[in-house]
Amino acid sequence: MSGKASGNGNRAGRGPNRSGNPEAIPRAAATMLGVQHTAEEAAEMYEKIQTVNGHTFSVFPATRFRSKSASAKFASIVGSVDPIQFDAERFDNVRERLQVADKREKDACLQAIAVLYSEHLAKAFVAATNTDCAEIERMFYPDYMPTYNDALRALGLKRPWFYTRAVFATLENISRMPLENCNDKRQATMSFAEYYSLLWNYHTPFNTNAFVNLAVAQSFIPTKELVENTADYLAWRHSQIEGKEKKNPILFTGARTGRFAQLLNNTKKIPVPIVAVHEKPNSNPYLLVIPPEKQALFKPAPIITMKTQAALEKYEPSMVLMSDFTMHQDDTAMVRAQGCVREYVYFGMADSYAEGNGWDTWGYAKYRVKGEATLPPFLREGWVKVNLHHLSRWMIHKNDSDMMMGIGSVTSFVRDPLRPKFSQALKWKMARLRPFL
User: Fold this and answer.
1) Which residue in 341, 343, 379, 388 sits closest to 361, CA to CA?
2) Which residues have CB under 8 Å from 113's CB, separation 6+?
3) Neighbouring-strand partners of residue 345
């Protein structure tokens, strides 16, 4: 929430429900993966939604949610569900309520919003007619990497001519467009999607791409090109490390699943292992109905339950990979404070408060608080930010849509002795001009 009740929630949106699977949805028992149902519910699921857009899934996403209680909770907060009768004064009160409520009440509100968000994404997925559901089903499997073109086609996204990195401020402006329909009493009728984007203060698409990422608890599609080129980059950067740190593993933090780290390890290109850690890893990340005979194929990737600070001290990595930052919260200071770290790389929405802190993490001047130093922390500490466009061009972020691609990017922060030469950094930057064939 911006200004009075800032952006993606001014901390009101913290927690897994903003970017991960809704906690209120029934989960499997510890020995089973995916969403579990009673016999009656399973029969309804198999009969009514196993076939989507002409494809019959063997492992299919849950597109029906027990949302009555969530709808009731949401209506008690907002006043209605869909369409929503927007009132500016009440909207400000909703934002304030999310910020000042105790943890129990805040979690209940966020879980209700998350369930309705999931339900509306599912409706968009089922209604889409320009998707390749056979390829989408393959994308659910944790070891599968679609090519960039196949992923775009399957998700119904148009292939851009060139890679263009999106400007986050544009997403903020798009989210406020429904306010133009307000009458003189500052009231209007909005869809749930419009209200949801306005609540978090940036445009969030409701499309197949967002739903597929939600179904497997990831923030971007691990395309084959992204994984292979990232592995090449890490191997090359690792070759420049000298001293005893060269034998230490690369650390991956932020994501609640270890899928991307495992895919990178599977390339066998990187001479040291990538170790994924998270304080609260997601042991069952699937909003999928997974039959018993398929369970073994969905075994979650290895991830160690450990806080980032403890992992930094234990593994003493020279390189750290990061993703899925909590909004308005900076997790990079602790990484820079480790003398062993020479580079950290982030995969996701850069230069925003949606992932990380707009100023402390990204140094984006728009979000600098008045009175703070004119240089962002990473520059003051001797680090430089490098946009890795040759990797970013292969990323399909969960918020990408036909309206705007390039939401996600790969961004490196480096210090000596790994600071790249100007010519090398320019080469990476100019990669955005290569046309997609």
Assistant:
1) 379
2) 17, 70, 74, 196, 199
3) 321, 412
Contact present, 358 and 364 (Cβ < 8 Å): yes
The answer as to whether 309 is a domain residue is yes
Q: Percent helix, strand and coil across the chain, each rounded to 5?
A: 40, 10, 45
Structure confidence by residue, pLDDT tens digits, 387-430: 999 999 999 999 999 999 999 999 999 997 788 888 888 888 88
Rg of the chain taking only CA atoms, in angstroms: 22
Q: Which residue stretches of 129-207 are H helix?
A: 133-140, 148-155, 168-175, 192-200
SS3 240: coil
| Residues 225 and 354 grouped into a single domain | yes
Joined tokens for residue 270: 């990187």
188 and 280 housed in the same domain: no
CATH code, domain carrying 418: 3.40.50
**pTM surpassing 0.85?**
yes
What does the block give as tokens for 248?
């230490």
Q: Encode pLDDT of 84-136 as tens digits.
A: 999 999 999 988 888 888 888 888 899 999 999 999 999 999 999 999 999 99
